[in-house]
Amino acid sequence: MAIKMTKKEIKEITNREVPTTIEFIKSDGTKRKMICSTNWDFLAKKKIKLNDGGVRDKPKKEPDHLIIVWDLEKNGFRYITITKILNIY
Fold first, then answer.
1. Which end of the chain has fewer surrounding CB within 10 Å, N or C?
2. What is the distance between the alpha carbons of residues 61 and 9, in angstroms, rounded to a whole number?
3. What is the arithmetic mean of pLDDT over 1-30?
4. pLDDT at 39 over 80
């Protein structure tokens, strides 16, 4: 069952200076745990190396039903449907 949190509450958790783990249901129906962050200042301090060697700015637009996070294991932006989030810590 999905958690009962607003987008604002989720962003407050993912915006801390420590990585956040989110458990959610992917669009293909499988369950996934992701270590991520939305704290762009924290990510810049950690000098996240992108796969292409470049620098990536934070996403410019975020639809209301999604949250955009930086996946610390896959090294890239990911979109998570808010209603599919099962747990966040």
1. N
2. 18
3. 94
4. yes
User: CA 58 → CA 16, 33, 38, 68, 86, distances in Å?
Assistant: 16, 22, 9, 9, 25
Percent of the chain whose pLDDT exceeds 70:
81
pLDDT tens digits, residue range 47-79?
555 555 555 566 667 889 999 999 999 988 899
Are 70 and 76 spatial neighbours (Cβ–Cβ below 8 Å)? Answer: yes
Q: Which residues pair with 82 in a beta bridge?
A: none
Q: Is 71 helix (H, G, I), strand (E, B) or coil?
A: strand
What values do phi and psi take at 26, rounded to 5?
-70, 165
- The H-assigned helical ranges of the chain are 7-14, 40-45
Instruction: Take residue 89 and report the two structure tokens written for it.
Output: 């810590």
Distance between CA atoms of 74 and 51, rounded to whole angstroms? 9
